[in-house]
Write a structure and sequence with these properties.
Layout (H helix, E strand, L loop, with lengths): L1 H14 L1 H5 L7 H7 L17 E6 L5 E5 L2 E5 L4 E3 L3 E2 L6 E2 L3 E6 L4 E6 L2 E6 L4 E4 L11 E6 L5 E5 L4 E5 L2 E5 L23
Antiparallel strand pairs: 1-2, 2-3, 3-4, 5-6, 7-8, 8-9, 9-10, 11-12, 12-13, 13-14
Length: 196
């Protein structure tokens, strides 16, 4: 009986303290939704260049990067700033074109997939780099970006092969390398590092 009483006291004190002390839960379902959450709707009327949003990514400095049909946008919590990022050719002025997937990696690089290829933004140097000289990748619409546990960047296109970017080199993969098709909507990685 003593053991049973101790067990009951333990359960009441440590598992259900509110039952012992008459405390109410800190958050009820109503309070969670009503008191602790807010929602905002962003549209062209609020400063976005387009109502068509393709992707969101949060950078290391806290800005929210937004991929839209009218280009790349940076949001600081107050204002939306369109950010020209794409170079049609080396040395050309930066433009803002339709963006698709976004990815921020552990090296603090923002990867931007667009309707015309791949661009990166290095937070340390504050510079954009568009990859023009990659055969099969330049001027292609990017569908998906993924960074694997080994640090490789995988780039899937709307039409064309799958690319891997590793240590400054792009490698393409297609049916001859074992892919069943080239329309890849997403890359998934297992705990052992296998890509699906």
């Amino acid at each position: 009986r003593i053991n049973k009483s101790i067990n009951v006291i333990f359960i009441l004190f440590f598992v259900f303290p509110s039952a012992v002390f008459g405390l109410r839960p800190l958050l009820t379902a109503e309070r969670q939704l009503g008191d602790h959450c807010t929602s905002d709707g962003w549209t062209k009327n609020g400063g976005l260049p387009s109502d068509s949003i393709h992707a969101l990514a949060r950078g290391p400095e806290g800005f929210l990067w937004i991929s839209t049909k009218k280009g790349l946008v940076r949001y600081d919590g107050l204002t939306f700033e369109p950010v020209p990022f794409y170079q049609k050719e080396p040395g050309a002025r930066l433009q803002n074109i339709e963006t698709r997937p976004l990815l921020v990696d552990i090296d603090d690089t923002l990867w931007i997939g667009s309707v015309s290829g791949l661009t990166s933004y290095d937070y340390r140097t504050r510079r954009f780099a568009t990859y023009h000289d990659v055969k099969g990748l330049a001027n292609q619409k990017v569908r998906c970006l993924y960074k694997d546990i080994r640090g490789n960047l995988w780039i899937s296109l709307y039409s064309g092969p799958l690319f891997r970017y590793s240590e400054g080199t792009f490698t393409s993969f297609d049916k001859k390398d074992g892919l069943t098709g080239t329309k890849i909507n997403a890359v998934v990685e297992t705990q052992t590092g296998e890509l699906l």
